Amino acid sequence: MKKIVTLLSVLLIAATPFAAQATPDDDLKAFRAYFTKKFPDVPVNDFINGVYAVDPASREQWEQFEEFPSYQIAIDNGEEKFNKKFANGKSYADCFPNYKKGIKQNYPYFDTDKGEVVTLEGAINKCRTDNGEKPLKWQKGEITEIGAYLAYLSRGHKINVKVPNDAKAIAAYNRGKKHFYSKRGQLNMACADCHYYYSGSRIRADILSPALGHTSGFPVYRNKWAGMGTLHRRYGGCNKQVRAKPFKPQSDEYKALEYFETYMGNGLEINGPSQRK
Ligand code: HEC
Predict the structure, then answer these.
(1) Which of 71, 84, 85, 191 sits at 20 to 30 Å (Cα–Cα) from 206?
(2) What residues contact 243, with CB distance under 8 A and at least 6 apart?
């Protein structure tokens, strides 16, 4: 009997993320507490460094890479393209008047009038199409350069994503949360399996990063990509790893996932762009 009771309580604890009354703020507190307890030696803001926060062996090499980072060129290109005028004489600065102060920490946000999550990439392309320019491709190339420049200007600002008291905003947040904890693909694994329960453990050649602060360093230059990629590019790769069909970049599903994951990182600093294996 005792065994059954223990098992039951384990199941109940595992189920708490879905407790009906849990607000985003409750989730955030529990999420952060889980990781700070699991990795007591990692200062909380260090979780913005992904796997390098929990893998001292690869951290040293990563720090060397960061001294002459491969993303530097993306920042420089991004600055140049950001400042280039559109054909109508306007520029990105007209869409993002506060860009110099750093704006990335406020993305994604929920647009209550439109009833949708707005990501920084989405806002970049909306700026273009509103000004008669063609939208950029979503996952790599120019959008990561503009994104790298804006992230760079936002470094050190604390992530400050809000879930307004709006039924659709809460639904989007819960959709992202559900994606994070749901098993999928032929391997039947959830984001949470790798980046929550098994974070810090090894899978094949990799140590798994904790999901806390996951979005802070994007866009990233990945050696494996030999180039830059957005967060949604990474999401697609992680869905594929478990042999699940990836969603489209900037689909409502990935926007919701980004909304949830970024909200979980509230209070940690933006550290994009960054370098990854
Ligand atoms: C089978 C295990 C596995 C699953 C499931 C998985 N990932 Fe990953 N993920 C990895 C590995 C391995 C890496 C590279 C090492 C690292 O940074 O954790 C990675 C990296 C990432 C990164 C980059 C972190 C950084 O700092 O650069 C993000 C973000 C991410 N995953 C999100 C997700 C999300 C969201 C899901 C669910 C859709 C998911 N992953 C599912 C294995 C997994």
Answers:
(1) 71
(2) 185, 186, 187
For residues 151-173, give the mean pLDDT: 98
The rounded Cα 134 to chain-centroid distance in angstroms is 25
In ligand 1, the atom with minimum distance to the C-alpha of 261 is: 35
Sequence-separated (6 or more) residues with CB below 8 Å from residue 235: 246, 247, 249, 254, 257, 258
Ligand 1 within 6 A of CB of 194: yes
pLDDT digits (tens, 9 = 90+) for 81-97: 999 999 999 999 999 99
What is the CB neighbour count within 10 angstroms for residue 168? 15
Question: Quick check: CB of 22 below 6 Å from ligand 1?
Answer: no
In this predicted model, what pLDDT tens digit does every residue of 174-230 receive, in sequence order?
999 999 999 999 999 999 999 999 999 999 889 999 999 999 999 999 999 999 999
**How many whole angstroms separate alpha carbon 107 and alpha carbon 117?**
9
Nearest atom in ligand 1 to the alpha carbon of residue 215 is 29
What's the CA gap between 134 and 171, in Å, rounded?
Answer: 31
Cβ of 189 less than 6 Å from ligand 1? yes
Contact 212, 31 (CB under 8 A): yes
Q: Is 206 in the pocket of ligand 1 (CB under 6 A)?
A: yes
Residue % of the chain over a pLDDT of 70: 92
Q: 150 in ligand 1 pocket by Cβ < 6 Å?
A: no
Tens digit of pLDDT for each residue in 176-191? 999 999 999 999 999 9
